[in-house]
Amino acid sequence: MFASFATRTGGQEAANPTSGAPAPSGLAEWWPVLEGLGLSHNDLATVERQARLAGVCFQRELVASGVIGEADLFYVLARHLGLDFVDEVRPESLLVREPQCLNILRRPSGTARVPALDLSTGQPVFLIAPQAVSIPAMRRLLARHPRIARMMRVVPPSVLRGALMARAEGHLSQGAVNGLFEKWSHLSARLVMTGWQGAVLGALVAVLGMSLLLWTGPALLGLHIVLSLSFLSCVTLRLLAAARARSAQPGRELKAVRTEDMPVYTVIVALYKEAEIVPDLLMALGRIVWPRSKLEIKLVCERDDHETLRAIAAHGLRPCIEVIEVPGAGPRTKPKALSYALPMTSGEFLVLFDAEDRPHPFQLIEAWQRFREGGEDLACLQAPLVISNRHESWLSRMFAFEYAALFHGILPWLAGRGLVLPLGGTSNHFRRSVLERVGGWDPYNVTEDADLGLRLRRFGYRVDTIASPTYEDAPTTLPVWLPQRTRWFKGWFQTWLVHMRDAPRLARELGLRSFLATQVLFPGMLLCALGNLLFLLAILAFCAFFLIRGSLPHAYGAMLLVDLFNIVCGYGAFLALGWWTLPPPARRSLWKHAALTPAYWMLLSLAAWRALWQLYTCPHHWEKTPHRPHRPTPARPQRRKPGPEPTTAPSSSPIASMSRPG
After folding, report:
1. Under a CB-based contact definition with an 8 Å cutoff, are residues 268 and 353 in contact?
2. Which regions are flagged for Polar residues bias (predicted)?
3. 72 part of a folded domain
4. Which ranges of 511-589 does DSSP label H, i.e. alpha helix?
5. What is the Cα–Cα distance from 111 to 283, expressed in whole angstroms?
6. What's the structural domain count of the chain?
7. Helix, strand or coil for residue 234?
8. pTM, whole model, 2 decimals?
9. Tens digit of each residue's pLDDT (9 = 90 or more) over 293-317
10. 356 and 277 in contact (C-beta within 8 Å)?
11. Which domain holds residue 137?
12. Torsion over CA: 588, 591, 594, 595 (sign)
């Protein structure tokens, strides 16, 4: 019955000839409802044209445009239809179970009706928030069924969604914390090690310790061989990626698009203690080129992060933005918060950004076009991260150098050869259905991005890269940089332990080449960082031995040469890859990077050893990286080739009615 006056779809909204449902009302039928609000008919006609271009109904475009507030619109609609209006809904009044709440919340166009109890009278009512209403059909329905009309209450969709989220909180928390473990326990980092992994690791540590005490020379030689092989594998990977970067072709140009073909796109941003950068975030999201009537933005915050929530509430947000408050149950990690929000998204595609990110305005369009061209097995696209504050400190300079090597060198090389690709922590674009199919994010893994890239490959999906970047600022001080890098190293080793619980099965699911790449990317990179410190200490020890004794035993001399070879090749490959992936203007300062590389690698070693200790003492602890508002670096104006003209209408508009420059 209620479907007779509303059509709810994720894309084009029109009459359904097979079901006989009427088309949603346009401006002609909405004008009698709106004319008393002082709105310009010309402005409303513009909204109607934009709705036709976007392939959505007039009502949906009207709310997205910000011409009228959501509460005002539904208030005048209720008055026009002769129905009661409700602007507050208590979660306990809803007569729906928690799983039903989730089914309603994931609908892209809101809800048609939700049964509830009028707590003042004890009578059942229907709460309606129609997002694509046919006003004539609605009036006919109310005239034919006056008893139902007396039970109806019109409520703004955001108010009803808030009540539904509160009602489903327990179910959402359970799924976010235990969903992956209950579905595929062997893929969850909830248990850091299995029994046999712990036994093997303990045996290796015991054997190594005894060998160093009883057979020092052979033990050191064996340790050098293992670490040297790790160094050699990482050097080879970097050199291969550098060769690819040297001959890389420029990115493809965007094609013209029809706005009506564009699907609903979800943007998720996880925030924790980010009150200071909320204005910058809203401005960055406001530059995204995508029709606002087909964009949903989820700002995911911890419930007890009152400062960030107040900072968000200080801005008049458009209806495309929804704030999701995550309760404190389970591990307090970013992936837990993302898993909590995922069931409440409805976009065909989904992108994850960090709070400090400034994505390229056309990034969503490029990702969508690549998804359309790539086939259904293309599950995820990684956008490159570019550091914009490289000149603030020597740490940010080296961080930018390392990021250029990773996102413009190693990841494109892996993707180009169809190998497993560990995702970066942000700017990941997903097919939402595939993301849900593989279990979403692991709330217990502190590098959920790398884990998810590996899991997607195990399920038979591809991950690729795109060219449109996301700009962000690097840590500029050691107290900020060290915890972040420690968490990354800890998570990579955690991810490797999880997926190596059944190594033969992992090899079958990944394929031999990706399996070998996994050994280089995860334990190989960690052993490189650990081994760098050991090699430097060994070189110092051998040199001291030579100065004291005047000579070196042949075994120690050979190990000294191996250590020097490893250090020179490791630093050289690192610099070569960074050179070819840096933008040409930045290559002039390569000598600075070369001079800073030994100190930076020492810090990497410190972070790696710290990560091992934390993996033992607090494996699921998330060390938060603090952020600050972006401070643009003054630069001389440069002539730049103009980019493509926007191809959507409205393609980009503010998402907050209040903002301030960063």
Report:
1. yes
2. 1-19
3. yes
4. 512-519, 525-549, 554-581
5. 29
6. 1
7. helix
8. 0.89
9. 999 999 999 999 999 999 999 998 8
10. yes
11. 2-167
12. negative
